[in-house]
Amino acid sequence: MSADLINVHSYCAGSWLPSQSASSENARIIKSAVTGQMIAVAGGTGFDAASMLNHARTIGGPALRATTFHDRARALKALATHLNDNKELLYDLSYMAGSTRADSWIDIDGGIMTLFAYASRGRREMPDSTVFLDGDVEQLSRHGTFIGQHICTPKLGVGVHINAFNFPVWGMLEKLAATLLAGMPAIVKPATDTCYITEACFRLMIDSKTFPAGAFQLIAGSTGDLLDLLTAQDVVSFTGSAQTALMLRSNPHILSHCIPFISEQDSLNGSVLGPDAVPGTPEFDLFVKEVIGEMTTKAGQKCTAIRRLMVPQASISDCIEALNSKLSEIKVGDPRLESTQMGPLVSEIQRGDVLKINWRLGHQAEMVTPANAVIVESADRDLGAFVAPTLFHCADPDAATSVHELEAFGPTATIMPYRDLDQACQLLNRGGGSLVASVFTHDPQIASQMVTGSAAWHGRLYINDRVSAKESTGHGSPLPHMTHGGPGRAGGGEELGGIRSVMHYMQRTAIQGSPNMIAAVGRTWVPNADTIPGDAHPFTRTFTELQLGETLQTKARQITLEDIEHFAQFTGDTFYAHMDDDAAKANPFFPGRVAHGYLLLSFAAGLFVEPDPGPVLANTGLTDLAFQKPVSPGDSIRVELTVKRKTKRNDDYGEVRWHVALFNQDDEAVATYTLHTMNAY
Ligand code: NAP
Fold first, then answer.
1. Full-prediction pTM beyond 0.70?
2. Domain ranges of the chain
3. CA 478 to ligand 1: nearest atom
4. Which of 14, 150, 329, 471 has its CA 20 to 30 A from that of 402?
5. The domain 270-477: what is its CATH number?
6. Residue whose CA lies nearest to ligand 1 atom number 18
């Protein structure tokens, strides 16, 4: 055994536990993907699953839930910054798993960027409190004394994250971002093949001291009886093969306790070359480029990689020729070399699996990659887990089965012809549910037809053409902003997609009660809740001084015909409803000439603003505007301005949302909206 063998530790209830020695039957030896040498040992760390769960539930969970969404978003940002400053050591380790620098960028920088993205969205889209409001208040009663509001609060258990080997850093961070932002602690179980990289990242996370004790723990090796100790307040989030997912999600304990199980599985992702994208068009070239990238990035070990290519019958030989010409130039070798474009697979076992599946694909499709496709540069072909990029041609995709069912988790793809778009959709959907499908076309009608015919089978549809090519993010790249997951074979799960994924770790509850109850629960004033008449004008009060429900009642102002005409000439808005009595009367909405809605907003501002410099720094917007009743010349309006919600932005100022309601002389509602201002502390 080498003295430098990495002993991968578990991190349980605040302590690091080493794996057993390489000779133990409970530990697994991990070998370099490049040289085949032993590099690490993992497993048999002797953790106690019950203590880990207890630590998370009684220490980590309460500490996280004592903070607000914004506190946690700030902690995510600090964590991302710390990892970013120390990421080089992760790159060093990743070479041993066969990743080139470009491959590792997706994993390491991609993971860190996901943390940054959630840090930012958490502060922009979630409140600085512990309760997330899901949608608007629901009116449940005639007089408004009994209303409803959906809220989301963090589940009281643990997020158990079981990850695949191919993204040891991103896989951990993308799940943690949503879980921690929700306010739930997590136990991370990386795939053993690359767990030494995850462990190194995890050590940086602990060193960063950005999250409280118990917020995250790590298991190297088997999970033991962990899954059998979960409750309905826990969430399992799994990424890996369909086979393992089926085994884990059908665990009787998980089923009988209705424990949420999110699954991201393998899928037979397809890409369609549009009928318009004939050889010589930019879309044909883009398709070839994308396929080559998808086959060779991470040596094809990406759950989103293109496995099946659907090409118009007339273009099939040109396409095979173009792909083969590029594939034959791919330099496969030591991932540390800058010239290397594709490294080895992660392990000898993985290589065996891919070659076995290639052999099975060969029964229904013809291998068309030239035999000389592999050029192993500065690496030992026999010791490393190298395979050649392999392209198959399936001439009869309707009759074939294996090309639509078998995932070779490596640089393998199958090209197949289609007659028309209906058949292209059918073939795309034969994967039985995928994470992503792509269409290369410059014709919006073709794109629309493909979306209608196939979207229900795919989690993401990527349409690329000469317009989007330069800025497009790639078929195989899950983004924090867009959902990642897919139906059927892909597992039926949904991760990422902004704040949507945070909701997996929160319980949605419908709250019903009086407006005062709902306002207190959501820390947001709602109509019909008590108001507080302010002693001073609210614009003279600082962010800290303002209270929810504090209200200004303005005096009334009459609207004259001269006002309307002046406003029309001044702004150029001479729409007939304001200028022509007969034409306005002919309109079903107006009794005759009426005031402009924008005139009402301007007069409202004139009624409620305090002119002198003060704590209000800026008006940053207006949302939810509704005009309820027209205002005729001779009517008057008054305004009620109420502090609805306060959100701290930084140490100098915070955002105040005001409920603004305009009433006429008969106390009928004329208009309502939410005004956003930035107010000094
Ligand atoms: P895998 O063999 O299914 O393993 C996935 C995870 O499950 C690993 O952490 C594994 O740990 C763990 N596991 C296996 N048996 C377990 C058990 N009895 N109890 C608890 N955990 C258990 O998949 P993989 O080989 O790591 O990854 C490759 C597959 O993942 C491919 O099929 C790929 O398509 C899929 N994938 C999907 C996505 C996605 O987002 N949809 C992303 C990446 C990969 P050990 O390693 O210790 O066995």
1. yes
2. 51-264, 270-477, 531-680
3. 40
4. 329
5. 3.40.309.10
6. 248
